[in-house]
């Protein structure tokens, strides 16, 4: 089963993000705006084992505030990002704790984890440059409290199906 572990921030102004994703993100109709903590992995780990893992490694972790602002990109893979300005350390802590124990073997160690919210993916350099320029005019800030973590199943069409949520 293909899964990932994510945050679904609920910003009052989330429609701005949704409209950007509709324009630039091929997965906009498959999954709501999200921050990935554990990247997609295939495993036969049971739901109960995952819940036990969450309970063990996330003891004492409380809800926290985040702020996202400013759009940037990385043309190597064509991704467009909304950057996390506040709450980054909390998200990295969740990432590090979850990638221990039964999930340790799924950690991709060839790249540093940098929390973000993906708003698009473009493969053509000209389109990518145009999108980065367009997004540079946005000055809006996005703020919310993170109080839940979600485990999703990803179907063959890349659609997200929530397996369970975990309250912080």
UniProtKB/TrEMBL annotation:
InterPro entries xrefs: 2H_phosphoesterase_YjcG-like (IPR050580), Cyclic_Pdiesterase (IPR009097)
Top-level taxon: Bacteria
Gene Ontology MF term list: ligase activity
Keyword Ligase: yes
Keyword tags: Ligase
Keyword Ribosomal protein among UniProt keywords: no
Transmembrane domains' residue ranges: none
Pfam families: 2_5_RNA_ligase2
Name this protein carries in UniProt: 2'-5' RNA ligase
Organism of this sequence: Clostridium frigidicarnis
